[in-house]
Write a structure and sequence with these properties.
Elements: E1 6-9, E2 20-21, E3 29-32, E4 40-43, E5 48-58, E6 63-68, H1 71-77, E7 79-81, E8 86-88, E9 95-102, E10 108-111, E11 115-123
Antiparallel strand pairs: 1-5, 2-3, 3-11, 4-10, 5-9, 6-8, 6-11, 7-9
Length: 150
């Protein structure tokens, strides 16, 4: 299944590649850092930064985009997304940005055009919430965190 997502480049994103799936069956399209030409961002351990991707987009009604970490950055450097998954709603028209955080032990340098996150576009099911007097019983009941075992 495919869906068309229109996007427009902002001045600081011109020249970067479009978000791209890296393999034929990939779910997430890689997003690149739209840092100034020749510029870079150094993330110290524990530091976070809002990194621009240099484009705005129009998702079709009934879809969302989820921003997720790239596994290579996480495994090699401890860099992940602070609000993972970040949600972009279909009615948002501002710049796509990624909140990176360095959970590793060393500085990590991000350069212009480096792939920093992935974006998954997915259909949305909007719930209709209904207040009721009581809920049906289940085996789990009100058991919360860790209640089903280790």
């Amino acid at each position: 299944m495919t869906v068309s997502v229109r996007l427009t480049w902002l001045a600081h994103g011109v020249g970067l590649p479009l978000p791209a799936l890296q393999t034929p069956q990939a779910a997430g399209a890689d997003l690149c850092a739209a840092l100034p030409e020749g510029g870079q961002l150094t993330l110290a351990p524990g530091q976070r930064a809002l990194v621009p991707c240099g484009f705005c987009m129009a998702l079709p009604e009934g879809f969302e985009a989820q921003l997720r970490p790239r596994s290579g950055l996480a495994a090699r450097h401890g860099v992940t997304l602070l609000n993972s998954p970040g949600t972009i709603d279909a009615d948002y028209r501002g710049e796509v940005k990624v909140i990176l955080v360095n959970l590793g032990t060393e500085d990590v340098v991000i350069g212009r055009g480096e792939r920093i996150a992935q974006m998954v576009v997915a259909p949305v099911v909007q719930p209709v919430f209904v207040a009721v007097e009581e809920l049906d019983e289940t085996i789990r009941g009100s058991g919360g965190f860790g209640s089903t075992g280790r």
